[in-house]
Amino acid sequence: MQLALALAKEAAEDGEVPVGCVIAGPDGAVIGTGRNRRESDSDATAHAEMEAIRAACSALGSWRLTGCSLYVTLEPCPMCAGAVINARVSRLYYGAREPNSGCCGSVLNLFMERFGFEPRIEGGVCEPACSALLRSFFETRRSREVRL
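User: That's the sequence. What structure does it adopt?
Assistant: Structure tokens below.
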């Protein structure tokens, strides 16, 4: 999760919502990383998880990420939760809860639906650091908007 936090900080420095993601292969080696790039890429699908899943699939030469673990600083949205299910990621660890779009239980739990695959999920991993980074980013953004 520390690498995911470092990626989230990079995203924040570029004006992106600070979310970072890392995927470890079955042997624990990092096989994919990602960070939010929606603003810089002008792409609604440029979420940290999507970028990391693409990189991990490429590294393994397969769309199946069975045996892999995904670490992300923010609870996945519906799109990213669906990608986790479709890629067959075995374990999902997330930091901060996302009350507006989180699909590990905050808004709904997409993983409890009958898709035929259910990863192991653990939330609250490094939650204080993940939440603080997000809170600081949005406080800074709001203060800049007030000055304009």
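The chain has a mean pLDDT of 95.
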